[in-house]
Specification:
Elements lengths: L3 E5 L4 H12 L3 E6 L15 E4 L5 H7 L5 E4 L11 H17 L4 E7 L8 H14 L6 E6 L2 E2 L4 H12 L2 E4 L6 E2 L2 E2 H13 L7 E4 L5 E2 H11 L5 E4 L5 H11 L4 H9 L11 H5 L8 H9 L17 E6 L2 E10 L3 H9 L11 H13 L19 E2 L2 E7 L3 E6 L5 E12 L2 E12 L1 H36 L7
Parallel strand pairs: 1-2, 1-4, 2-3, 4-5, 5-6, 6-11, 7-10, 8-13
Antiparallel strand pairs: 9-12, 14-15, 15-20, 16-17, 17-18, 18-19, 19-20
Length: 482
């Protein structure tokens, strides 16, 4: 029978990356989350068992840990606000107590890479204490300690990304000269999976890192060079941490209550000194920082993103994994087929249904700056991947369900438009999503400058699609507007 594995922190970055790998290896995966609805946007949601609960609630822990062989402890309480640290230890103690009462065989914990003899900040100190609390019982614990985790969606990487993209000259504290040893998310997952299968790892602490040791400042500058950006850093010894926290919280998707403790952890070097991981896991060869960043940048496509915004309301605007994402949804009392007919006939000689003049103007501007402009459509039928679609090109199409177009406009970033159609009762739900991945400060200026216009056009477009789909449903055929 498949081994039952519990993953706490499933809505977090590491947990959400670990779960599909565990499923691929044939494990029965159970998750413990406060709000199960937050998992519904993940591709693997239907393949896992979900328990609603909290690490501060012993009853839900006892349920979640029943018949579990291996439990992954991948949670932190930073998002719960100020003075979260005591809750870290209470959560760990509750978890250990429930794990012992349900005969869990093995706990795997991912903490922070720090050395307690140095000044490390309260966040890292409590991460170390959490490991101590988990090891206080009779269950063997494998603890990994890592520095920055590099991957599209990692909090550490997103802070690096947003700083490097938006600031040609960055002002920071002297803490940016401290050393770090970043590790790719792929390598972290390899270690976590290997710990399940390596009995000799139980009861040990392992420091893990990539092949490159560099300063925090150089993590930002190296990212910038790989993106073709020129960046400079000015260090001010008297600059207060709260100022840098405020700036990062304002320009990135990471909230201030998470930025603050993470910046506090920059006070000391975060590098591997104990290399026992290489002896116990000889098959794992970690990547260098450049390779890790390039791998993360390859994730800048909607294909690699879980559709977590689909659980939100009729309008959601989020920043995720280097993207600005604007999603709109509308319920339409008509067939999915009629909606797809309308969506697949947009553009070309039929126009864009709403404010078509603005679409034409955008095409003329693009032509003027050297872009393709409104090229029409290569064929006047259901689109296929690779076909021209005005200043888009068809990226993905699933008949009756899904159409995604990739923008070929001359713009400081990459863009896509996507429509997904889901049957709902006697009608259907239409989800329309605009993606934009800005490059450099001009990419951010471009997005914010056009946001009012885009909001107006996209608001009108999805409603025009709904009206036209109802017409098709009533008349039995499609009628084009010119």
């Amino acid at each position: 029978m498949a081994e039952t594995v519990l993953v706490t922190g499933a809505t977090g970055y590491v947990g959400s990356c670990l779960i599909p790998r565990l499923l691929d290896k044939g494990n029965h995966v159970r998750t413990l989350v406060r709000d199960p609805d937050r998992l519904k946007g993940f591709e693997w949601f239907s393949r896992v068992e979900t328990i609603s609960g909290d690490l501060l609630e012993k009853h839900s822990l006892n349920i979640a840990l029943q018949n579990v062989a291996t439990a992954f402890y991948l949670v932190h309480n930073m998002s719960s606000g100020w003075n979260y640290e005591p809750r870290e230890l209470e959560s760990a103690r509750n978890f250990l107590s429930a794990a012992e009462s349900t005969n869990v065989e093995h706990i795997i914990y991912l903490g922070g890479l720090a050395h307690p003899e140095e000044e490390i900040g309260s966040h890292l100190e409590y991460r170390l204490q959490t490991g101590n609390a988990l090891r206080a019982g009779r269950i063997p614990v494998t603890e990994f300690r890592s520095s920055l985790i590099i991957g599209s969606g990692s909090i550490s990487f997103e802070m690096i990304r947003y700083l490097a993209e938006q600031f040609p000259i960055m002002i920071g504290t002297r803490n940016l000269t401290k050393l770090t040893q970043p590790i790719s998310i792929q390598d972290v997952i390899k270690y976590l999976i290997a710990a399940m299968e390596t009995v000799s790892s139980r009861g040990h602490i392992f420091e893990i890192g990539g092949e490159t040791v560099l300063t925090y400042k150089d993590t930002i500058n190296t990212y910038a060079r790989l993106r073709g950006l020129t960046r400079h850093t000015i260090l001010l010894p008297w600059m207060p941490d709260f100022l840098m926290t405020s700036v990062l919280a304002m320009i990135s998707p990471v909230p201030a209550n998470i930025v603050r403790p993470l910046l506090g952890g920059l006070r000391a070097n975060s590098i591997v000194r104990d290399r026992s991981a290489m002896e116990i896991f000889p098959g794992i060869r970690t990547s260098g920082y450049k390779e890790s960043v390039l791998a993360a940048l390859q994730e800048m496509t909607p294909d690699r993103m879980d559709q977590v915004w689909q659980n939100e309301g009729s309008l959601s605007r989020i920043r995720q994994r280097g993207f600005f994402i604007e999603n709109r949804k509308i319920s339409i009392d008509t067939s999915p087929y009629a909606i797809f007919q309308v969506v697949s006939n947009l553009g070309g000689k039929h126009g864009w249904l709403y404010m078509n003049g603005l679409w034409k103007m955008r095409g003329l501007i693009d032509k003027w700056v050297g872009g393709p402009g409104l090229r029409g459509r290569s064929v006047d039928k259901t689109p296929s991947p690779g076909e021209v679609f005005d200043f888009y090109r068809v990226d993905v199409v699933t008949q009756g369900v899904h159409l995604r177009l990739k923008s070929e406009l001359r713009a400081p970033g990459l863009g896509w438009m996507e429509w997904r159609i889901t049957p709902a009762g006697e009608g259907a739900l239409l989800s329309q999503t605009a993606f934009f991945a800005p490059k450099g400060v001009w990419g951010f200026i471009y997005w914010y400058f056009l946001l009012p216009i885009h909001s107006l056009v996209f608001f009108g477009l999805i409603r025009a699609i709904a009206r036209r789909a109802k017409e098709i449903n009533n008349t039995g055929g499609i009628h084009h507007e010119h």
